Amino acid sequence: MPPRLFAFAAAVLLVAAAGTPAADPKEKPKFPANRLAKESSPYLLQHAHNPVDWYPWGAEAFEKAKREGKLVFLSIGYSSCHWCHVMERETFSDPDIAKLLAANFVCIKVDREERPDIDDVYMTALNVAGDSGGWPLSMFLTPDGKPIFGGTYFPPKDKKVGDATQLGFSTVLGKVNELMAKEKDGLFKQADKVAEMTNDALARGTRFQLVGALTREMVAEAAGAYEFDPVYGGTGSKDRDFKGTKFPRPSVYGFLLHHAARTKDAALAGSVRLTLRQMALGGIFDHLGGGFHRYSTERTWAVPHFEKMLYDNAQLTELYAEAFRLDADPLYRRVVADTLAFVARDMTSPDGVFYSALDADTDGEEGKHYVWTGEELGKVLGNAADTEFVKTVYGVGAPNFEEKYHVLRLPKPLAEIAADLKLTEAQVLERLTPLRARLLEARERRAKPFRDTKVITSWNGLMIAGYAKAGEVFHEPAHTAAAAKAADFLLRTVRTPDGRLKHLYAAVPGERPAARGNAFLEDYAFLTHGLLNLHDATGDKRWLDEAKALTDAAAKWHGDDARGGFYFTAHDHEKLFARAKDGYDGATPSGNGMVVRNLVRLASKTDDAKYRELAGKSLRAFAGMLRSSPGAAPNTARALDQWLDIATKDSVAADAKTPTPKMPRESSDVVSAVVKLTPVGGQPNRAFTLTLTIAAPFHVYANPTGNDTLVGSKTTVAIVVGGKENDDPIAYPVGSTVKDATTGDYRIYADGTRITGTLPAGVDPATVEFRVRVIACREGRCLLPSTLRVKP
Asked: pTM score > 0.85 for this model?
């Protein structure tokens, strides 16, 4: 059940940044340096001259909060985040807001890329409290670090957004102070509840232990969990016509390529192929400089959000190389070549390792470095025929960005453009190549977006994997050499004498770069993946030995020997109020998904039973997640498919002794309904009794629930006659009362609940349908809501 949020807190959680115009980036006053000036994070350094009295994450800030009886205000972001920049300019540079913060809060600033463990825990807390989340993440905490409530971006003052009013940060701070003065005990009880729910959410992937076989049926369920846009590719919601933002999902597409090849599923392969082609044609791909922007702001991949992240380009390099191996489309080769040219030019350090990100903004304007006007194109190219040719190739017609700029894209495949021009594809490329070079040269003279030069071990591992895969597939020694150079540097620089890794290689201002920060599971997982790809590309035993050593270290410091799987943080890491065992593949793969893939590969390469058995134990730990949320963990599903190839007959036979249960996912998995009609008032089949069967230990919420915070969860019955809903009264039973000191008492229905009423006079029962909306829960954990459709 949801926490009992105060009315103000609930309002805060509805605040979102999307659609709010950016501030005018005029020169802002320079304030004295604060504590962040001594940090290595570029994101923290961007806030080093705010008037806010910022602390970096650490004991000093929390001890001050405890000593002075203040709440903590936590702000999390990253250096290339557009809305983080807006809030820094608008809100955190406001002296009046800085005074309010100093008087009543201890303020902590965190770079999510340096501390993904902190970001994961508090973003989960925001999600369970009802907000979809995003960055900057703004959270109010108790002095011991428990989350109370929060939001994302806040402007400094209240502002109208359409018909609604978005609360300004000064208003938010005032209301939080008021709650702290009048409802302190309630705030702290709420923090306990949100912390409990956060722990529960972080454990969700491994809560259900598999009793039965690991099967290919589970792989097939995962492969069938995605809805593909049939026109532009990519995954989304068919019910929403696939509208809205679209993110590249390399983990999903890589798994589905593998599954389609194995099962000879031409339709699935076609959906992935359509997606890869549409992304490569769209504006999400930089057609002049190479590489992919973070995501598309709309369905067609045409208009991106312009930041460029190392992890996206790393994974997409490997994905397009894998796709080329299965389908030698020259477009895939060009995408890989152009992406690696971008990485070499803009994202590679003199040491051969890779920087983290390029900002979306330039001089405070999103996309300024990348977009064009028609006049600019003509001026650079200097020739009307060349200009017209470029405009035709890249679909430059009406502006497609902010009503005055053009994001270059290919409006259709190059072969079709060539046919329209009565040329061959090779002729179009021959003419286009020098013109692209001239445009890129001109673009390079523009102001450039900020580059985050910190070196993250995990993301470098993904880039090593991409380079190595490209070297193997395209037989390109330079790509393999780039992967080996980066791997060698990391193994010499971020590995400690006892074989453990550090998370970063970065510099504090005025100092030389150094390895910093405890490694996370993903550092071991992603770097090992890169080393295994290097071994595939070279056959050099060194890379296999190094992969084994890192995997053994991950098992020692992160492994859960009792239940299987791996914790995100090491056993001796700083203890937060919650500890994650991540299994969800998002923008980057989950650490667990990648580790289990590595284990299967190591078992295949070495025939060492310990890796095979550890992989099996980890797969069983996350089998419940594959059952309940099959689309959430494509890397785990991919690993399972490959593990089944190498699992011993004894282990498979032991698995098969017990049938695999289907884990409940939706409320309809545990609730059913039947309707019986009886005579009333001399009319047959007019009274009805609807009986709910609810599998123990689940319950559904009564109607009414007796608790205002649960009003949206109550059980409802709608009588639909001939397609129209009838409004005759329905008699709901009172239900049983559940005592809850934190949330407040509420009422539920258990197995055998009967709901009664009468049908309208003269209605033919054959035209009636009962629609029963239920949410089934147990011990505070709820399944997805369902609407049961029942005919009498």
From this structure: no
| Element at 427 (helix H, strand E) | helix 425-444
Task: Give the range among 173-182, 331-340, 342-351 with minimum mean pLDDT.
Answer: 173-182
> 185 exposed, middle or buried (CB, 10 Å; 0-12, 13-18, 19+)?
exposed
467, 480 contact by CB (below 8 A): yes
Q: What integer pLDDT is reported at residue 322 of this predicted model?
A: 98
Domains of the chain (ranges; CATH) run 7-202 (3.40.30.10), 370-446 (no CATH), 489-656 (1.50.10.10), 667-790 (2.60.40.1250)
Contact (Cβ atoms closer than 8 angstroms) between residue 159 and residue 166: yes
> pLDDT digits over 599-619, tens only?
999 999 999 999 999 999 999
DSSP state of 110: E
The helix (run of H) or strand (run of E) holding residue 107 is strand 105-111
- Average pLDDT of span 162-177: 89
Is the separation of the CB atoms in 410 and 394 below 8 Å?
A: yes
CB 78 within 8 A of CB 456: no
- The string of pLDDT tens digits covering residues 189-206 is 999 999 998 988 887 777
CA distance 664 to 670: 7
Neighbour tally for 403: CB within 10 Å: 7
Question: Dihedrals φ, ψ of 36, to 5°?
Answer: -70, -15
Where would I find the beta strands (DSSP E) of 235-377? 295-296, 304-305, 308-309, 357-358, 361-362, 365-366
Token pair in block for residue 190 = 């709420």
Q: How far apart are CA 323 and CA 325, in angstroms?
A: 5
Which pLDDT score, from 0 to 100, does residue 425 have?
A: 95
Q: What is the dihedral of CA 540, 543, 544, 550, to 10 degrees?
A: 170
Helical segments of 494-633, H only: 521-538, 541-558, 591-606, 609-621, 623-628
In a 13 Å sphere around the CA of 271, the CA atoms on its Cβ side amount to: 21
Enclosing H/E stretch for 451:
strand 451-452
The whole-angstrom separation of Cα 619 and Cα 592 is: 9
How many C-beta atoms surround the C-beta of residue 665 within 10 A?
15
> Can you say whether the dihedral through the CA atoms of 341, 345, 351, 353 is positive or negative?
negative
Token pair in block for residue 432: 């286009």
